[in-house]
Every structure is written in structure tokens, then in C-alpha cells.
Design brief:
The chain is mainly α and about 325 residues long. The chain has 14 helices and no strands. Helix 2 packs antiparallel against helix 11, helix 5 runs antiparallel to helix 13 and helix 6 runs parallel beside helix 14.
Length: about 325
């Protein structure tokens, strides 16, 4: 690691490092999921991942004496589970038939898509520069999926693209739903994890039985990583960190997810990106970062005009 980067990390605030860790876990989750899917079905992977995560988070819920089983909490948790479960099913299905690098980059379009849905709901349009960044990100995806002379994207790329659209829409809906909720994010997330774990398990009982009886400790470790690091820790860390830093800084740090997806996919997974692929990746990452900056300034200006604080990003499970 370059000395300059080491010095910057040494000077970074603990909050920044925690948010970077969350982004790293999310970015790496695509490769880890792809490895697990070599021996475990899609339904079993999701079912076991979320059952483990729910069991771990249950300990935190009990220690904090959270009120989980209220009608409002269960209703909201079911809606969130339906949205996030759909996103996770699409992501997992997509990554099973495309590269982890492609999946991590294409899903990052949700960073651009989410504010578009939010502005549509609020009927308050973003600056023109944001739409230019959105167009550039789409061009980046086109370059990424057409590298090597294939002018049509693979099926997995299209499924991940659908996941990005659903994630963008779902994040907007979850943000608006939780804004009016008196329940804590912790109890809502526990309901969400438990519902998804049970639903995916029931949907693929045979796959879950086969996985439990056949996979080795490395696959269990990978599932534990997805459950604990990418789900439980990521959620708890987001919830804590966004209270300690600015909304724009949190969004930008969490937005480094596609960078980590590329680094892990290429360096650890041995996945190859051609020249067009690297150009597309660079365009996607640059467009999402610039777009985030434009959206954050627009949000801050709108909050200042309304005389209120800048809203922090809603903690959600992803990756």
C-alpha cells in the first residue's frame, strides 16, 4: 500500500474508517457470494445468510430490550423485507451468471437512481449536472458490458441492472416509510432479516437441506461473512456512523462500494477487465461520485432553505 495512502488512513476519523469498512464488505460480498453459489443454490444461500444474520442480531435486540413484536413494526418490517428480499434475490441471481466485478459496478447505479426516484416523489428536480452524470454512468455500463466485442449484455448484467433499479426505488420507499415510524431501525431490521431468512428457506427447503449436509467449513465461513460482516455489522455501523458525521460524507464513503468490488474481483478473484472494461469502470465510479456530490449540495441547499438539518442517508441492508 502506498505510504501516502497509509498516512491518510492514519489521519482518518474512526467514523470514516468504519464507513469505509462497510463499503469494503459490500464490495467484497459479490465475489464471496459467487464463490458460495458454486456449491449452494441461490435460495439456500439467501436463506442461510439471513437466518444466521437474524440469530446474531437477535442477541443485540435482547440485550437492548427492543420492542419488536408490535403491529406497526411487523407491518413495516414485512414491507421492507419484501423490497430488500427482491433486491437481494435479483443481485444473487445476477452474480451467479456474471462476474463479481460487473455486478459490483452495475449495482452502483443505484447510487444515481435513488435520488432520481426521490426527486420524482418530491416533485423537486435535481440540477442538470446530475442528469449528465446519470447519462455518463449509463455510458460506463455500456462500455463495461460490451467489452470483448460482445455488443449485447449478458443475462446476468441485465438482472443486476434490474436489481439496481429496484434498489433505487426501494431505498426511496424505505426512507419515506421509516421517516414516519416510531420503531427503532434495529427492531425493524431484525424483523426484516427474520422474514427474509424464513421466506428464502421455505422457498428452497431441499437446497437448504443439501447445503447443511454437504458444505464444508469454508462455505460456512463465507456465509458467516455475508451474514455478520455484510449484513449485521454493516447495518449497525451505518446506524452509528451517520449520527457522527455529515450526510454527504457518509454517502460518499459508502459510495466507494464499486471501487472495492473492482479491487477484490480483480486482485482476489482473478477476474479480468479489458481496456473498455477499465474505461467503463472508471466512468461509472467517476459519474457516481460527481453525481453524489451534486445531489448532496442540492440536498443541503434545500434543507437550508427549509430551515432544517440535512437528512442523513437511511441505513439499509445491501451488498
Amino acid at each position: 500500500m502506498p505510504p501516502r495512502l497509509l498516512r491518510r488512513l492514519a489521519r482518518a476519523q474512526p467514523t470514516d474508517l468504519i464507513l469505509i469498512a462497510v463499503a469494503f464488505f459490500w464490495g467484497s460480498s459479490f465475489l464471496v457470494t459467487k464463490i458460495v453459489l458454486e456449491r449452494v443454490s441461490i435460495g439456500a444461500t439467501l436463506g442461510l445468510r439471513f437466518l444466521i444474520a437474524a440469530a446474531v442480531l437477535a442477541v443485540v435486540v435482547v440485550l437492548r430490550r427492543e420492542r419488536v413484536f408490535t403491529i406497526a413494526n411487523l407491518a413495516a418490517g414485512l414491507i421492507i423485507a419484501l423490497i430488500v428480499g427482491t433486491v437481494m434475490a435479483l443481485e444473487t441471481a445476477g452474480v451467479s451468471v456474471t462476474s463479481a466485478t460487473n455486478a459490483g459496478l452495475i449495482i452502483s447505479l443505484a447510487i444515481i437512481i435513488t435520488p432520481l426516484f426521490d426527486s420524482l416523489f418530491k416533485r423537486s428536480w435535481l440540477p442538470g449536472g446530475y442528469f449528465l452524470c446519470s447519462a455518463a454512468a449509463v455510458v460506463g455500463v455500456a462500455l463495461l458490458v460490451t467489452q470483448g466485442g460482445a455488443y449485447l449484455p449478458r443475462a446476468g448484467d441485465l438482472v443486476i441492472l434490474a436489481a439496481a433499479v429496484v434498489r433505487g426505488f426501494g431505498t426511496t420507499v424505505i426512507s419515506r416509510l421509516t421517516r414516519s415510524q416510531s420503531s427503532s431501525p434495529l427492531s425493524l431490521t431484525f424483523v426484516q432479516l427474520a422474514v427474509m431468512g424464513v421466506a428464502f428457506t421455505l422457498a428452497d427447503l431441499a437446497g437448504v437441506r443439501d447445503a447443511v449436509s454437504t458444505i464444508g467449513w469454508t462455505d460456512w465461513a463465507a456465509l458467516g461473512y455475508l451474514a455478520v460482516a455484510c449484513s449485521v455489522f454493516a447495518f449497525l455501523a451505518q446506524t452509528w456512523a451517520i449520527k457522527k458525521t455529515s450526510a454527504s460524507r457518509a454517502s460518499l464513503l459508502l459510495g466507494s462500494e464499486p471501487v472495492w468490488a473492482v479491487l477484490v474481483g480483480v486482485a482476489v478473484g482473478g477476474e479480468a477487465l479489458g481496456t473498455l472494461g477499465f474505461v467503463g469502470a472508471a466512468v461509472i465510479i467517476a459519474a457516481t461520485y460527481v453525481g453524489q456530490g451534486i445531489e448532496a449540495r442540492h440536498r443541503a441547499s434545500a434543507a437550508a432553505a427549509a430551515g432544517g438539518p440535512v437528512p442523513a442517508p437511511t441505513p439499509v441492508l445491501t451488498g
